[in-house]
Amino acid sequence: xxxxxxxxxxxxxxxxxxxxxxxxxxxxxxxxxxxxxxxxxxxxxxxxxxxxxxxxxxxxxxxxxxxxxxxxxxxxxxxxxxxxxxxxxxxxxxxxxxxxxxxxxxxxxxxxxxxxxxxxxxxxxxxxxxxxxxxxxxxxxxxxxxxxxxxxxxxxxxxxxxxxxxxxxxxxxxxxxxxxxxxxxxxxxxxxxxxxxxxxxxxxxxxxxxx
Length: 211
Prior knowledge:
With about 210 residues, the protein is mostly helical. The protein has seven helices and no strands. The longest helix has about 40 residues. It is found in: Membrane. This is Tetraspanin 31.
């Protein structure tokens, strides 16, 4: 059978969803590993990563069941959900790639204000830094953070956490944006495959349909 046939569309859709299953399990596993080894202490971060992994796993399972059984309703909802995920992920990925340094600093400062004290201390210990940015706008907050800082570098001389994080922020955002764009195009491929496969007739169910 040619690649444009029913079997090829089904196998391609199944293969794509197997990849999504593996990525979802990887996200859940990495989050659990990071928590277990104390790399990330924030339950909000861990919970967010696990939720994304679980959501991706759920979509992939729906896609797999729909592809194997040629289930029209499941394939329809799979297409709708994957299309919405594509729009959201494409927008976020483009934002990551286009984010300027000044905006990165502004977002980092905003996040630092709402982060819990325990999370701040954990970041300071892991990054070996104290405080965020030593500027006039947040001088009081910076002084309070430095006074409560327990990082090893405090015995000598500490860099600010803002400087340490900004050194890698641009590179991390480019990687996240690039990976997000790549997966967003695989989602469009999944929508197209599901739409095509959904409209094809199963020759096993009705052998005379093509006559």
